[in-house]
Structure prediction request, 475 residues.
Amino acid sequence: KNIEDKIDSSLLLESMSTFLREFERVKIWQVDPTLYLRIFLLGVDTLLSKLSHTAMRKVGLRKNLLSRMKQLPRLIGEAKVNLKEVPGLYIKTGIEMVNSTIDYLRNFDASPLIKNTKSNKELLSIVRNAVGELCSFKVFLSEKGASGTALKGRQELEDILNNSFSYNRSLEEIFDIARLEYDNTIKELEHAAGKIGSRKKWQNILSEYCLDAKNKKELLNYYAEQIDRLKTFFTEKDLVTIPKSQTILARETPPFLIPVRASASYSCPVTNDMKEPAFFYVTAKYAKFDKPTDRRAKSIHNEYIFISAHETYIGHHLLDTHRRQLKNPIRRQVESALFYEGWASYAEWFIASLGYIKGPLQRMVGLKRRAWRAIRAMLDAGVRINKISLEDAKRMLSDLGYEPDIVKSMVDHYILTPGYQLCYTVGKFEIEQLKNRFSHTMGLKKFHDALLESGEAPFDLIKERMDKLICKDSF
Prediction:
């Protein structure tokens, strides 16, 4: 096989391996109640937030929305039959998501999208039935005895790395990469704090910093303006091809998506309609104007510059735009979390290295994010090789300034997603290794473009492909 065939074969095998692991070995439908709710909520998002901006608004939106809502009781009924041995952490997370979904449906208003009064009344009746079914599901989960553990062992994680990511570094190597990243980042944080001229520790300096957004509209404007600035910055620098792409709309995270989205997240278009926008969701409820006493609010949106780079330029949006325009149908469809999150984390590092970040305070914000991700990677790999305990990880997250309840919630989430937490730090590390090897010969723009046109391929195959490109083109 030539290198292009190797990449295609590898991506197909990764995709099949992930599917077989989830549905044949893990049997996710038997252990995770959130699976059913995510199917419903992401489907609603596709209809209400995405397809409502395309021709679907005029053709079929009402019919599809009615159908989606009508199917929820059936979906919950299947969940009750299918769920067998459910670990306690999955039950807890499932109940939390049920509560959020009930809150959303009880306040559901379709009138902005469905003008017909009769149709609206029909939909509200269906919604009431769905709420009743969800209340019953909550009782079901509350009464269901927990069994098994959500924390998977070494063999499970190695299987994910080897077969779903085609990644062959040992867990020991991964832990060491993350540990070095963490140690170096903490040193940089201490150095940056010293430049501010304060005797306070960096944790105290960051805890006092709060983004001054007076309302939700102003908060969204911070993000929207940052998207434009980042796009302009990278267009002028000409360090990566910025293709013509869909508009990115900065929007408050819809209530029904809060259970399945982070404080800020990117959602790419689902159709080939260039009029369909991409969405950059911002969960405004964590901003200081909403809950002035919520200390979590003091750290999340302070990161808006890095979050914007991670989710839009040159992070997820640029990557997805390149991927969706590839002629190769395999690379156009298949995603890899290791490359996907690694590239977005690299985007954050890259804007700092280019001087886009001004002043030591904003630099500290970015460094804290790097340290946070390194802890996640250390936990992901280290807890399975006895290099770190869950309590060690909680202590390290607390040392970064996170509150105890937030730390517990973080660690619970990380346990439920083995393999994903290391993708940010380790993926960034591998991209940096490729950059150090090839960018001097190829130039940064050709390096980045060659990286993106490879698809979200395994890093060893990207390295092989770039070696061949250099030999062929004689840079």
Remarks:
- The longest helix spans residues 117-143.
- Residues 50 and 276 are 7 Å apart (CA to CA).
